[in-house]
Structure formats: C-alpha cells, structure tokens
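Input.
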Amino acid sequence: MTFLDDPLILIFVILFVGSFIGQLEIKGINLGASGVLLFAMVLGHFGYQIPAIVQNLGLSLFIVAVGLQAGPRFFRMLKSSGLVFAILGFLIIVIASITTVIVSKVFNLSAPLSIGLMTGALTSTPGLAAGLEATKDPIVSVGYGIAYPFGVIAVVLFVQLFPRVLKVDLQKDLQKTVSPIKHKSSLKKMTVLIDKDEAHKKTLKELQRNIKSSAIISRVIRGDRNFLGRNDTVLLKGDEVIVVGYPEELNKFRDAVGREVTTDVNIRANIRMHRVVVDAEELIGKVFARSTLGKDTA
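Output.
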C-alpha cells in the first residue's frame, strides 16, 4: 500500500509531474501538455489506476473545453480559411481510416485495437472516447496508449524540429507577417468644411469609397449641432467634419471634399468619452463596425 493508491493523490501527482516533464526543454524542444498524458501512461503500465468515473469526467471536460474554445470561432473561420482547414482535416481522417483498415487486415488486428491505434496516432482524445463508447471494449485504450507516444513525437518533430532542419525562424516569419504598417508621422486631427459638389448629399460610406482614403470621420458638425459620423450619415454643403488619420490621408480627404477650417464648437457638449481596453477573444480579427458603436460613445 503506497500513497499513490489514493486516487486523489495519484491524480495530483500525475498532473504535477506530467506538467514538469512537459516543460522540460532539450535544445528548445518540449512535450508541452502531452507530458501529463505520457506520465499517466507510464504509471498505468505499472498497474496504477483511477476510478472509471474520474476517467469519464476527464474525457468529458476535455471535449467540452475544446468545444467551448473552438465553437465561437467555427462559423467565422468558415468564412475565411476555415473551409480549407476543414477539407484538410476531413482528408486526414479519411486517409487515416483507410490506412487503419489496411494495417488491421495485414496484421490481423481486432477492430477495437485498430480503432485505438488510429485515435492514438492522431492524438485524438475525443476519438478515444467515441471508440470506447462504440465498442464497449477497454482494449481501445491499449491501442491508444501504444500509438499515442509516436503521434506526439511525430508532431513535436514536425512542428519544432523540422523548421530547425530547414533553418527557418518561425518567429521572424510571424513578425514579418503581422508587422503593422509603418507611417512616417503620427495620427492627427483636422476639421474640414464640405463645400464641393462631389461631397454634397453623399453618405459617409459613399464618400470614403469614392475618395479611397483611410481617414476616419469621427464627428459631423451641422449648425449648432454635432453628432457621430456613421456609414449612413448624409453630408450637406456647409457641414463641417472632424477627421482623424495620418497627415497624407487627411490632406487627400480635404482636397477631395473642401477646405480646412477651425471651429469653436464644443464637440464634447452632448457626448461622453470612454477609454476602453479590448481584451475579449471573440473580438480578435473582427472589424469594429461603426454601427456597433453606442449613441454615447465617441
């Protein structure tokens, strides 16, 4: 009788030691979260077990966590490159299934063991859960345990080691890809009087499409009133607009619609200003449309 015979202590030991193993690096290569599962497999080889209800709970939590993480992005990704990844994922599963059938026939393996080998090679824990539920045979876990280490090693070698062999610096490539557009100057603000026919009775959306300027119209001043500029806001001759952008874009906008003026209108008289830090993951990569702004936001 050892302290590891207590299921609760055993789980915490697996999590602690497995996480430590996953963080160990050898020339920049590590197992990450897979270290936990690999260490658990080692203990399982020596006969240590945890209750079936805990195993089922862990699998359920894993599947739910993946669903909650990937679900909100699913349909949004389909509109961009998600369809390509979905096709690739489908092809991988088809090829893996065909390969599994061939291997099982050649080596005369049972169906449950073959399913376990396939899910392990793909490092698919949800696949393991589905295999166990479909076959009701624990040998699925044996096949999963045999193939899983090789699946993890293959992923680690491909993702972390292969770029080193090709002498490719992924971090530098990423910085080049996402590096922001550099401007010679900082953002400025300009008040422009609308006095050209080309801008008369045009919506802001039409105007910006025709001018092709990245300058943003933040406020429209009409007489003694001022209001937020929206895509469907119609401009009239005599209106003044407050535009924000880089100097070259501001000049381009000014030349297209009118001339620069100064105004004494207090644009903060009927609005409230808020500074908001965006940290919601669901907003990453989305266009912040003007129509989503509240009436009291500037």
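DSSP finds ten helices and seven strands in the chain.
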